[in-house]
Amino acid sequence: MRKILGLLMLISAFTLKAQVNGENKLGSWHMYFGTNKISDKLSIHTEAQLRYYEQAKNFNQLLLRTGLNYHIDANTWTTLGYGYIITDSTFREFSNETHLYEHRIFERFFLKNKVWEFNFEHRYTLEQRFMDFGILKDIQHRIRYRLQLTLPLTNTFFLNFYDEIFINLQDDFFGQNRLYAAIGINVTDNTSIQLGYLKNQFSDLNYDRLQIGVTYNPDLRGVLKKK
């Protein structure tokens, strides 16, 4: 009887914890990505993401990011960028909790290769995070590595998978891991849409997220030459 009571208490505690932090909710991420060529070697990265604890409601995070890319060759490039992030870390909607405001500087290195029909992309990121909690300010550093695999199905449809690990350079070593799978549609030569699922795992939390992402990569070199 004691064992049954203990098990019921454990299940109750787990359920209450999930309700408090939103682990039991299927959230959504709405994303835009752009790469705009301005010369043979340079392009501009633009990005906006709106993340929710639930489906398009209960705000979690706004992420705005931009950067300058230098293309070493067709399969290798680097990025120096800046991001502005607002985060509500509490699941309770309309709570009085203080938001986290973050200014982020990041450096990235990309390397692409192809094996048979599989397109691989390796992304290495170093981040300097200037964080404002309201009553406390902090500077943190972390590194990230993402391995992405894209498989064309037809000229229009493709599959996309990636796994990205976050490593803190202070405090706890493990930051988070993101596992992603999606189906993509090439709408035009420079526009695509992805519909996918993300498993976002922290050391003590797990979130499930549906994602819709739009990528728009217009080449601005002709426009700039005319001007």
Automatic annotation (TrEMBL):
Residues 1-18 form the signal peptide. The keyword Signal applies. Keywords: Signal. InterPro entries: DUF2490 (IPR019619). It comes from the Bacteria. This is Uncharacterized protein DUF2490. It comes from Arenibacter echinorum.
